[in-house]
């Protein structure tokens, strides 16, 4: 069964280290998710997430422009970041492992998100909803996002590990 994402209760966020001492957080403002959810066997479900690379937003315009540039996402040539599920495994209770292919800058690698899936449940308006929250950590260099600056005191300007999180709520299509 096809489910539609509720964008008012969903987000795609990331965070990474700056100068190895502070965490910079951001999100993507333009994205879409599609899901075929099997309510009786969540592990048989599948989904795809498409993110507009140019929609990156860290709250600082100069940094966002740099992230859109060829040093990072190269959003003009590679406008979409895509995650497509390959398998969903129940760990215990509402905890799941969601593996799939993540494509950034035309480089595709398998990643595994850890998280929880809640529902399905009836909402007050007669619909049925299901939600998930999941996170993974990636090495940005694996996708060609290797720009950096060595610091005079040692270390680097931008940390290699980026944590990605997806929080989504879906409504069963009528």
Structure description:
- This protein has 174 residues and is mainly β.
- It has a single domain (2-13, 27-146, 162-172), classed as Lipid/polyisoprenoid-binding, YceI-like (Lipocalin).
- Helices cover 5% and strands 57% of the residues.
- It has one helix and eleven strands.
- The protein has one helix at residues 61-68; strands spanning 2-5, 11-18, 22-28, 31-36, 46-52, 56-57, 80-92, 95-104, 107-122, 128-139, 158-172.
- Strands 1-4-5-7-8-9-10-11 form an eight-stranded antiparallel barrel.
- The longest helix is centred in the middle third of the chain and has 8 residues, at 61-68.
- The mean pLDDT is 94.
Quick summary of this structure?
The protein has 174 residues and is mainly β.
Layout: helices, strands, pairs:
Blueprint (H helix, E strand, L loop, with lengths): L1 E4 L5 E8 L3 E7 L2 E6 L9 E7 L3 E2 L3 H8 L11 E13 L2 E10 L2 E16 L5 E12 L18 E15 L2
Antiparallel strand pairs: 1-4, 1-11, 2-3, 2-11, 3-6, 4-5, 5-7, 7-8, 8-9, 9-10, 10-11
Keywords:
174 residues; mainly beta; Lipocalin; 8-stranded antiparallel barrel; 1 helix; 11 strands
Q: Could you say what the CATH topology is called?
A: Lipocalin
- Report low-confidence residues grouped into runs of 5 or more: none
Helix content: under 10%
Number of domains: 1
Number of strands: 11
Largest sheet: 8 strands, antiparallel, barrel
* Beta-strand residue percentage: over 45%
CATH superfamily: Lipid/polyisoprenoid-binding, YceI-like
CATH-scheme architecture: Beta Barrel
Query: Helix segment count?
Result: 1
- The SSE string, one letter per element, is EEEEEEHEEEEE
Strand order of the largest sheet: 1-4-5-7-8-9-10-11
Structural class: mainly beta
Shape descriptor reads elongated
Radius of gyration: 17 Å
Distance, first to last CA = 10 Å
Averaged pLDDT, please?
Answer: 94
CATH class: Mainly Beta
């Amino acid at each position: 069964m096809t489910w539609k994402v509720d964008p008012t209760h969903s987000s795609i966020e990331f965070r990474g280290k700056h100068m190895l001492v502070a965490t910079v957080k951001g999100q993507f403002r333009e994205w879409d998710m599609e899901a075929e959810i099997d309510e009786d066997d969540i592990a048989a479900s599948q989904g795809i997430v498409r993110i507009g690379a140019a929609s990156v937003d860290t709250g600082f315009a100069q940094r966002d422009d740099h992230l859109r540039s060829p040093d990072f996402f190269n959003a003009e040539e590679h406008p979409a970041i895509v995650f497509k599920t390959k398998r969903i495994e129940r760990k215990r209770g509402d905890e799941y492992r969601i593996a799939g292919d993540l494509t950034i800058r035309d480089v595709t690698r398998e990643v595994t998100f850890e998280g929880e899936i809640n529902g399905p449940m009836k909402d007050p308006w007669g619909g049925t909803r299901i939600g998930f929250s999941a996170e993974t950590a990636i090495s940005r260099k694996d996708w060609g996002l290797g720009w950096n600056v060595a610091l005079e005191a040692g270390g680097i300007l931008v940390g290699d590990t980026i944590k990605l999180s997806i929080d989504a709520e879906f409504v069963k299509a009528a």
